[in-house]
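pipeline/complex-builder :: batch 7 item 3
reading input block
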Amino acid sequence: MASFPLAPGAAIGIIGGGQLGRMLSLAAAELGFDTVILEPERGCPAGRVAARTIAAPYDDPEALAKLAKACAVVSYEFENVPAAAVDRLAALGCEVAPGARALAVAQDRLEEKTFLNAHGAPTVAFAAASTADEAVQAVAEVGAPALMKTRREGYDGKGQRWVEHAADAAAAFQALGGVPVIVEAACPFVRELSVIAARGRDGATAVYPLAENHHEGGILRRSIAPAGVAKATADQAERIAARVLGGLDYVGVVGIELFELADGALLVNEFAPRVHNTGHWTQDGCEVSQFEQHIRAIAGWPLGPTHAIVRVEMLNLLGEEVHGWARLAAEPESRVHLYGKREAKAGRKMGHVNRMRPL
Amino acid sequence: MASFPLAPGAAIGIIGGGQLGRMLSLAAAELGFDTVILEPERGCPAGRVAARTIAAPYDDPEALAKLAKACAVVSYEFENVPAAAVDRLAALGCEVAPGARALAVAQDRLEEKTFLNAHGAPTVAFAAASTADEAVQAVAEVGAPALMKTRREGYDGKGQRWVEHAADAAAAFQALGGVPVIVEAACPFVRELSVIAARGRDGATAVYPLAENHHEGGILRRSIAPAGVAKATADQAERIAARVLGGLDYVGVVGIELFELADGALLVNEFAPRVHNTGHWTQDGCEVSQFEQHIRAIAGWPLGPTHAIVRVEMLNLLGEEVHGWARLAAEPESRVHLYGKREAKAGRKMGHVNRMRPL
């Protein structure tokens, strides 16, 4: 078993080899750690900056055994890590952070909202459905229009659809594949915000200033942070973060998506048990980025400061937009972060740029 | 031949796999580049964050051919790269930056000082010697006490010794191995400063604020930047940097070590054609670090901003000092940078810490 705090030189495992794994690896290296990436895709973004890549499916038992043997702690860059993989690592005596409970809650939208409400983190009204009839009932219960989402999987707007009238609920349920769903009341939000927070192995927490987020077609386009918010709103975000982190006995960084209502009150949309796209601004806006913070937390190091040193407008570079790198590189106020992905598919997150603004 | 500016996804070669290569690799990755390290030592610090390592001697012809084939441009992390290696890369049509002339001048202390004076960058008085008799003559010429240094090799205070009296010159010459030396007049400096500067492929230059440096036993212990200096001193440093960069038709980052005299005037001690230990403060003190700046320059990207956003005290962690990581990690004002070296030998640079101070 690993002994915490982890000494530099230890290896940290990361399941998933995309941009989040890449930026985690870079942050880990600054602290003297090696990283080992588990990812089926060869030449993945994270693997090209890691000490080692194990090229295998996420649930491959032999690969997981190698990962457990090589690493003092294992983390992940996406919340849909197969539960069996985490169980396997645990059975091998390998520390996984954030833990299995955080992952299980985050993987099921019904469990997630139930957990949030139980811990005093308010959400929209919701109801679950496993059949078409239940789906009709659920929409009637929360009121149309409502948002129907598969309980599991789905990201960037995938696996969900709006139901304008209760009568359309059965068709929507079938269109989503006839799998268990959650139906959420429409939220009259005025703004989408998010809060990135961390909890260390000692239970200490650290919360970054709120980000204001703008999506297009279900994909994050732009974040501005620190967002201009009333003190009461910022305080509520801190309370929500503390409840989520404490309620899950969490270790690591969490990204919590929020709806701001007209009166400044917040509802939780969802949380991701990992570093988060709306926290990329911290790379240039804070002394310790969300990536270093996550590594600090899972390694049992003390958390770093989270105050903003500058205001940042973070812009995702999607698909072909990455070909604008030369123009962006010439902007003195812009810091360019590119992920080394080979193919600029439509909507694919290829990089981001942090534009500095006065605080 | 490579076409500049290099597009993200290109590979950048780095000769040398130590901490400077490591930090260059991390910076290159943020801009979407892969790095390929040439280094005989397996498991070297840079190799653990690079896309590929070629484990071979620096002058191995086959290894150099592989490097040239894989990379759009090759740079290096130390100035004692064998000239034959650079010639071989050039013969293969591989772009090397900084170029062969910068390297040749920097490798020979006599050529270096001759170049500096010829380009209006003042140094202490000096004289060359290739025999014991010439050494005596040289010390007589510049006046004792004088500092005798081998013309080639030597770093961190190695390969040099003080000559208190002209009569000791022959013995000092023999003690240094009987190789060609340069004898330098003692410099009545009040402070050691350095300036980190860069020149792009378009000839544009960018100069960071001066750092004040403190050595112990010939090894850098501490830098404070921006150093408090008179405007005339800062202006002279900028002029010196411009002359060095322009005179060598330089591409990349250079580190120039300076002596400040009582009246604020500067003499050049030496320059290193690479990122420099006294520039590590830029990682946390500037928007674009010296490492990113070097990658930008050699990739033909526009240079980034060089102004300080905070004052930094950079402290090298030598040998066993690295074992103080837990205490340093707990200091909110300290950013820890560790190199992943396995063995904490005495005097070995294991990492550094940047402590934030108000500007």
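note: Chain B has a mean pLDDT of 96.
queue -> next item
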